[in-house]
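Worked example

This section walks through a single chain of length 166. The input is the sequence exactly as stored; nothing has been trimmed or padded.
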Amino acid sequence: MPSVPLCKLLAGVFIWGLLAGCAGRIPPQLAEQVSWKLDLPEIRRHPEAYRGRVVALGGTVTHINAVEDGYRVVVSEFPLDGSSRPRPAVNQLPRGMFIVMIPRHVLPSDLRLGVELTVVGEIRGMAAVPEAAGAEAPLLESRHIQVWSPSWWPRLQLGVRGDIGI
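Given that input, the structure is written out below as tokens.
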């Protein structure tokens, strides 16, 4: 039977690991520069007013194209949760798209279609989305990219009438 101090030590390590795994992964010096209250719908309404501002957006990768300076990644945007991870509610539609430009030398090796990611980037204006004829989306220059592994955490949603979705 383990001693009480060993049990406390194991419980402490478990709790620390759980909290560390849930913590946001945006570097603190970069997080201080982020305009946290600025979201995609607001950027789409006034893109030129926010040019040069640093934002954190997240979502699901829908297209990756090699371009002259690196890679052009189109992302379907979903709101971020408290750990800076995109967490769409059950059956939630994306709030729109954004484009992020990633230099060739910093492309994450695990970036592929369908993954969830969080991007901290500087707003550069609007750009055409060739995959969606006639559409424009905010263009970000990446400063930090976090590609998320599939989540084991269930996505529960409680409805107004008490119904539950998973």
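What to look for: The longest strand covers residues 54-67.
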